[in-house]
Specification:
Layout: E1 3-4, E2 10-17, E3 26-33, E4 38-42, E5 57-60, E6 64-69, E7 80-85, E8 88-93, H1 98-111, H2 125-132, E9 141-146, E10 149-154, H3 165-177
Antiparallel strand pairs: 1-2, 2-3, 2-8, 3-4, 4-5, 6-7, 7-8, 9-10
Length: 200
C-alpha cells in the first residue's frame, strides 16, 4: 500500500516490466516525488541502501501522459496498471487489489496540469486596454483575390461608439493603410483599366 514518507513523497514496492516484450516483472522500490518532478525507483528504500547507491530508473512527471488500469491489456497479470511516458508503456504490478487504484489516482493527480484562476480582485488587463482605447476597435476584413491581386475590404459596418464618428473613421482609415497589399479606390476622375494581362 502506498504511504507518505517523512519528505512528503509517496512510496511503495511495485513490480515493473521495463521491457515491453519481456515476460517478467522486476520488483523495485518506487518514490513519487512531486517537488522534484520525478517518479524514481531504487533496489530498496534509499534509507536502507549505502549512501553512494544510485537509482535504478526515473521518469520525469512531465513525460507521463496517462496512467490507467491495465486489466484488459495484461489480463494474466493481477493488480496491473499502465503508465504512458513518451512513446513507451510501463506496466506496473501492485501487491493487492486496492494498490493499483491508489497509484493510478496519485499518479494522475501528480501529472495533472493546473492553471491558476485569475482572482476577482485583479482587473483583467485586456478589458482595461479595450476600455482605454476609445474609438479604436477591431474590424474584420474580407480578402478577395482578383486577377492575382488581393483586395481587402472591411466586412462590418461602422458602429457609433462613445467617441465621435470622426475618430472611428480616422482609425479605420489608419488601420487600412497599414494592411499589406491594400489597394485604395481610384479617384472618380481617373481612368480605370478594366482588362489586363499578367505573365508569371
Amino acid at each position: 500500500m502506498p504511504y507518505v514518507d517523512c519528505q512528503n513523497r509517496i512510496c511503495d514496492f511495485l513490480d515493473i516490466k521495463e521491457n515491453e516484450n519481456s515476460g517478467k516483472f522486476l520488483r523495485w522500490y518506487f518514490i513519487l516525488d512531486t517537488r522534484g518532478d520525478s517518479f524514481v525507483w531504487y533496489v530498496d528504500n534509499p534509507q536502507n541502501l549505502p549512501s553512494k547507491s544510485s537509482r535504478v530508473g526515473a521518469i520525469k512527471l512531465t513525460y507521463i501522459s496517462k496512467v490507467s488500469d491495465a486489466a484488459k491489456l495484461r489480463p494474466k497479470a493481477e493488480f496491473c496498471f499502465v503508465m504512458n511516458a513518451g512513446m513507451r508503456k510501463y506496466f506496473l504490478q501492485a501487491n493487492d487489489q486496492q494498490d493499483p487504484v491508489e497509484w493510478v489516482n496519485v499518479l494522475n493527480k501528480a501529472i495533472k496540469i493546473t492553471v491558476p484562476k485569475q482572482s476577482d480582485s485583479q482587473p483583467n488587463s485586456d478589458n482595461l486596454n479595450r476600455q482605454g482605447e476609445c474609438g479604436k476597435k477591431q474590424v474584420s476584413y474580407r480578402t478577395d483575390i482578383v486577377d492575382g491581386v488581393p483586395i481587402i475590404t472591411p466586412t462590418q459596418k461602422e458602429e457609433i461608439n462613445e467617441c465621435s464618428e470622426n475618430t472611428d473613421k480616422n482609425n479605420l482609415k489608419q488601420s487600412q493603410s497599414h494592411l499589406p497589399y491594400f489597394i485604395p479606390k481610384p479617384p472618380p476622375d481617373s481612368a480605370v483599366i478594366t482588362a489586363a494581362y499578367c505573365v508569371k
